[in-house]
């Protein structure tokens, strides 16, 4: 889904799916998108018996790397461009969601 959304051309003669969403909201949606990607990565790695601490680092690193690659990819999409702000929002979402997972996990031990 992230790749698909990154592949949509920018505003111009052909409008895209994101045209009706204000740009501020589009930017803020980076937080949950990459935060959820990181959390899903932790869950997948834990399913393979990777220690939780390692799973956090690997998953966070992968999510950040994936976001970086998508930002570079946008340089080749008509009407799009890579943005340091988007990359910072990706990292913020990763950190925020992984921290929330770590601190709220004791409330959800039943699901582990």
What does this molecule look like?
With 112 residues, this protein is mainly α. The protein has one domain (22-111). It has 5 helices and no strands. The chain has helices spanning 2-7, 23-28, 30-47, 52-73, 84-104. Helix 3 (30-47) crosses helix 4 (52-73), helix 3 packs across helix 5 and helix 4 packs antiparallel against helix 5. The longest helix is centred in the middle third of the chain and has 22 residues, at 52-73. The chain is elongated and about 45 Å long. The two termini are 27 Å apart.
| Count of runs of 4 or more consecutive helical residues | 5
* Shape call: elongated
Radius of gyration: 16 Å
Helix and strand string, N-terminal first?
HHHHH
Strand content: under 5%
Oligomer: single chain
Largest sheet: none
What structural class is derived from the secondary structure elements?
Answer: mainly alpha
Instruction: Count the beta strands.
Output: 0
Low-confidence stretches: none
| Domain module count | 1
Distance between the termini: 27 Å
Q: What characteristics describe this protein?
A:
112 residues; mainly alpha; 0% strand; elongated
